[in-house]
Amino acid sequence: MHALSPYPSNSSFNYLFHTRPSTNRFTPNRFLIKCAYGFESAGFASTRADWQTSCAILSSKVVSQDQPSSDNNGATADHVAAVNGHNAAVSDLNLVHIGNSGGTDNNKPLPPKPLTISDLSPAPMHGSQLRVAYQGVPGAYSEAAAGKAYPNCEAIPCDQFEVAFQAVQLWIADRAVLPVENSLGGSIHRNYDLLLRHQLHIVGEVQLPVHHCLLALPGVRKEFLSRVISHPQALAQCEHTLTKLGLNVAREAVDDTAGAAEFVAANNLRDTAAIASARAAELYGLQILADGIQDDPSNVTRFVMLAREPIIPRTDRPFKTSIVFAHDKGTSVLFKVLSAFAFRNISLTKIESRPHRSRPIRVVDDENVGTAKHFEYMFYVDFEASMAEVRAQNALAEVQEFTSFLRVGYGIMPNGGCWLD
């Protein structure tokens, strides 16, 4: 995880937020946004001063670069401009540059370039292109989900889920689209924990069918493969099909599916195949050895769309609301909470329990069984009702009587539609 060092002088902060002279926009190099901070608190950038400081830290590392020009000998000359009164060099940025994949056609157009940190700016006005963060590299299923949720958006790849949350909080991105549940693999618990830690709001959801392909370099045959790499869930979802194909190969897990395809292409691995999407094969110059290799054809992943501001609940259309709660007395309160919804005929669409990170163990003294230790849990619940409805307000008022912690409306989204903004 890379860190961006703040510029030592505080004068750059005043310069940034008092006057902002117009600058020319240069075509950015293709960078992958890396995690820049390690904050663990839920109140990340909770004040305007914190937000301005974070923006100034990022802006002090900005670099603008002209299109490179090459001479006849292949030498490349780069012109680096001064930004915010300071000279910067590409080597000063702690960003990972994604170059052309090895063995691919140099004349083949690159995937759409994501925004870089130098494009840090307020959210676009009405009609402008939305910037949507997702986890992975171009060709990932999350990129396809971002395009389905926000057509014609500019997708921003992030190397971690945490970075996608930070990108929205720091105004580098306007939205984030992240997976929370798969029909075969279950919940993505990491994102449930991050939803509680960060002050972002769910404003919609989208479901994406997962269609896995077996990819390899052009000319490679299946019988010459010695290993298959992909995301752990993708490997598990294709286990039986790989056996039916007669592939007696080692199976290795990597961070994401499209990253596996990129790794095979970049390192010219002729004994290795990747499980990824057909778009990843197109982007990285790979051939499809087998199409639709998932064991279950009804493999679907549910993604949530995150924003800095919540949407206003209404009563003129169905809504889904998300809450999270805990209680000091353990799981005995769960029945009372469920009764509060059942009594008012409010349907629950999701209930998920996660160990309480602050108090994972609860010690109970019982005269019959002695001292016992139990897990403490946080409960995530989605229910089909709008916070503008009286029945939902009364249900949550009753739930609050039973719980020691209740966060209401971290997700309020229209039900039955792809998204609402």
Automatic annotation (TrEMBL):
Annotated InterPro entries: ACT-like_dom_sf, ACT_dom, Preph_deHydtase, Preph_deHydtase_CS
CDD domains: ACT_CM-PDT, PBP2_Ct-PDT_like
Biological pathway: Amino-acid biosynthesis; L-phenylalanine biosynthesis; L-phenylalanine from L-arogenate: step 1/1
One Gene Ontology cellular component: chloroplast stroma
Keyword Plastid: yes
Record-level GO BP terms: L-phenylalanine biosynthetic process
ACT domain: residues covered: 322-413
Function of the molecule: Converts the prephenate produced from the shikimate-chorismate pathway into phenylalanine.
PANTHER family associated with the record: PREPHENATE DEHYDRATASE P PROTEIN, PREPHENATE DEHYDRATASE-RELATED
Full protein name: Arogenate dehydratase
